[in-house]
Amino acid sequence: MQQEMDFGVFATAAANHARRRNSPPVPDTDGLFDAEGVAVICGRRQCHFEVAGELFGTVQFRETRVPLTAIAPGKWDPIAILSACTRAHGGKVFEVDYATAKPTNPGGLDELRIAAVLGADGLRPYLSKTARYFEGDHGLWAPVRNPAQTELVSFRRATAGKPTWAFKCVINMPDDGVPKAGGYSLRRALRALEDAGLMSIQLGPRGGMATARCTWTARAFLAPERLAPADEEAMELLA
User: Fold this and answer.
1) pLDDT tens string for the chain (239 positions)?
2) CB-based contacts of 89: which residues, under 8 Å, 6+ apart?
3) How far is CA 125 from CA 13, 116, 135, 165, 216, in A?
4) 67 contacts 60 by C-beta, under 8 angstroms
5) Is 199 left (phi over 0), alpha (psi -120 to 50) or beta?
6) What backbone phi and psi angles, to 5 degrees, belong to 155?
7) CA gap 61, 64 in Å, rounded
8) Residues in a beta bridge with 64
9) Rounded to two decimals, what is the model's pTM?
């Protein structure tokens, strides 16, 4: 039974089976979690959450304890939760540099919010220097394998502020919702987005992530722009 509930191992069939039986916590209308939701998210990362009041708590992994502060009584931000778990595991948290980031918000996604969640979970969302993959004039991109061949098709290396390769795979999810790229980094990123309430994951027939169907939730998209009251009245008159 203990092996089945080992949420820290993202790639095993046992962990996927446990996630089938234990759905992720649902955030409130503001995207925040209560203490029970915090405990579930921490448990998926083999961390223990101890509440010390409506505003304070502690995330512990083995002997490492990291304080966690709520942004409102009984309301906890998912980015702070993931950051505390990452630091408890000894990992590095990557904060979004809004001055250099160059979000494109593909399909209306809130790219910066997604980047903040993944950065809190330990994935670098944006490049801090020139990348090892190339971008083309028509939006084509590929990892660097044979530089001599890439120079023939007029590709250029991605510059600082552009999405990293793993983050690019996440925000450019295919229309069918089945990720075409694999690897532990991508699977972990998708799980973090699911825990934060930005993605819904339906596992494949055998419980694996290779054939899982990933769907963005409404919270992952930018809010629609609203006109000023005077402009709305003008549009009604035009109609």
Assistant:
1) 333 333 344 445 555 555 556 678 889 999 999 999 999 999 888 899 999 988 999 999 999 999 999 999 999 999 999 999 999 999 999 999 988 888 989 989 999 999 999 999 999 999 888 777 777 655 545 555 555 554 445 567 777 888 888 898 888 887 766 666 567 788 889 889 999 999 998 877 766 666 778 899 999 999 765 545 665 566 566 65
2) 45, 47, 61, 64
3) 28, 8, 17, 9, 18
4) no
5) beta
6) -95, 160
7) 5
8) 61
9) 0.78
Give the type of residue at 136: G
Tokens of 101: 């980031």
Provide the residue type at 7 as one letter: F
- Tokens matching residue 32: 């925040």
Q: Which residue has the tokens 């903040």?
A: 116
